[in-house]
């Protein structure tokens, strides 16, 4: 046995002894969330997928925040194809990526997503035609004209509007036409339309114009207004309701209101408040969707690190109740077209990347792609609404 082997053997035995001793004194190298073992069922065929169960209720179950689909593992792609009937791009249909310069378009990644959907009889919800974030410099810095907005919207919608999925459905069945046009609640509790570059340069009726343009460009697509922070009654929800009512009176062609649902671990009372609030929008004649669901488990890293495994598992059970509650609310509201979590598994979550919360676990599948209690929450709600 040569020198190198001996050295490696010594190193390996030291590492082994180190790990054993760490375990014995009770501190594992990293305090990671260890979920209950994934629910192993004897015959997977007996447990229908979310998309099959949802279809039985005439609802859609999608998955959002999908990045480059070709970079996912085979197993991830299998889960995406088996469990969901529509896909939403995380970033690669946004202006900054797909149209980074006036004369340059990057369609590859969104084309891949559309092709994947087509080959699995799925559809795609386009996200997002107009958003004040993820804009390229030439839009942010130079006065953008209506003609440039129109060219961007028409090019994207025309490229995909005639694409069909394997089952003959339009692949691009819906578009988040406008994202987050309502501003945040100010210090006086007041809310107004967000002062975006589009509002500033095109006037407040840019909203009317972009939805009218989207309607004529793809008359069959569902046109969505998508926003966050209006799930529960409060200043933003009151403003949104009044504003959308006004748009409807002006016959602005908005079909669906998307409630993003980036929420903490709601307690029971919140679900009731949300259901009543959602009904106020559907009673106006809008369809609704829960568009970007993630249910955060922890208020801080300190809280996470202070919790025992048992306490973490209790949080996961609470998270399951929230997902099940949201599914039942969607099933009870005939105007709810369906829902979609914002990401496949916890490692994908924007919350981890954006806020550096590597311990957060807001989605249906864990880091090892195992079905969490949250997944079974949706499943059980669909099996017994
Ligand atoms: O792909 C580029 C990479 O090439 C580059 O090197 C890197 C350098 O910054 O950026 C990469 O793009 C990042 C992209 O996510 C893909 O990962 C962008 O920087 C980053 O800003 C972008 O963040 C996304 C964010 O929207 C802004 O577009 C999040 O992943 C996405 O989950 C988040 O989603 C939004 C919804 O669209 C609207 N509702 C709120 C939600 C959360 O903010």
Task: Characterize the structure shown.
With 385 residues, the protein is an alpha/beta fold. Helices cover 44% and strands 15% of the residues. The chain has 15 helices and nine strands. Strands 1-2-3-4-5-6-8-9 form an eight-stranded parallel beta barrel, surrounded by six helices. Helix 3 links the parallel strand 1 and strand 2. Helix 7 packs parallel to helix 9 and helix 13 packs parallel to helix 15. The longest helix is centred in the last third of the chain and has 24 residues. The radius of gyration is 23 Å and the shape is globular. The termini are far apart. The protein binds ligand G3I. Ligand G3I binds next to loops.
What's the quick description here?
It is built from 15 helices and 9 strands. The chain is an alpha/beta fold.
Topology diagram in text:
Blueprint (H helix, E strand, L loop, with lengths): L2 H22 L25 H7 L3 E7 L7 H10 L2 E4 L5 H4 L9 H12 L3 E9 L5 H5 L4 H15 L11 E8 L17 H6 L3 H12 L4 E6 L7 H15 L6 E4 L2 E3 L3 H15 L4 E10 L4 H6 L2 H24 L3 E6 L8 H6 L17 H11 L2
Parallel strand pairs: 1-2, 1-9, 2-3, 3-4, 4-5, 5-6, 6-8, 7-8, 8-9
């Amino acid at each position: 046995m040569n020198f190198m082997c001996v050295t490696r053997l010594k190193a390996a035995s030291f590492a082994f002894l180190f790990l054993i001793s760490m375990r014995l004194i009770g501190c594992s190298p990293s305090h990671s969330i260890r979920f209950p073992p994934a629910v192993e069922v004897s015959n997977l065929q007996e447990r229908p997928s979310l998309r099959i169960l949802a279809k039985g209720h005439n609802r859609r179950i999608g998955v959002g925040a999908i990045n480059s689909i070709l970079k996912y593992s085979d197993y991830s792609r299998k889960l995406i194809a088996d469990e969901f009937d529509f896909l939403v791009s995380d970033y690669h249909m946004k202006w900054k990526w797909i149209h980074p310069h006036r004369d340059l378009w990057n369609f590859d990644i969104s084309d891949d997503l559309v092709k994947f959907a087509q080959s699995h009889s799925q559809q795609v919800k386009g996200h997002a035609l107009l958003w004040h974030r993820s804009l390229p410099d030439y839009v942010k810095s130079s006065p953008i004209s209506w003609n440039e907005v129109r060219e961007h919207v028409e090019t994207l919608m025309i490229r995909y509007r005639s694409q069909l999925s394997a089952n003959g459905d339009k692949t691009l069945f819906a578009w988040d036409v406008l994202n987050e046009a309502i501003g945040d609640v100010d210090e006086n509790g007041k809310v107004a339309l967000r002062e975006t570059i589009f509002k500033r340069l095109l006037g407040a009726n840019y909203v009317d114009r972009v939805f009218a343009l989207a309607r004529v460009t793809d008359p069959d697509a569902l046109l969505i207004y998508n926003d966050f922070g209006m799930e529960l009654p409060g200043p933003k929800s009151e403003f949104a309701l009044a504003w959308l009512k006004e748009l409807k009176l002006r016959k602005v062609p908005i079909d669906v209101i998307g409630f993003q649902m980036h929420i903490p671990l709601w307690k029971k009372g919140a679900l009731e408040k949300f259901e009543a609030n959602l009904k106020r929008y559907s009673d106006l004649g809008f369809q609704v969707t829960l568009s970007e669901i993630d249910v955060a488990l922890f208020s801080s890293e300190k809280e996470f690190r202070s919790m025992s495994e048992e306490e973490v598992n209790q949080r996961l059970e609470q998270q399951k109740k929230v997902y099940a509650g949201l599914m039942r609310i969607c099933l009870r509201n005939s105007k709810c077209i369906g829902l979609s979590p914002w990401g496949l598994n916890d490692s994908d979550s924007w919350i981890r990347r954006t806020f550096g919360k590597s311990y957060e676990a807001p989605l249906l599948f864990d880091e090892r792609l195992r079905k969490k209690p949250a997944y079974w929450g949706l499943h059980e709600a669909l099996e017994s609404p």
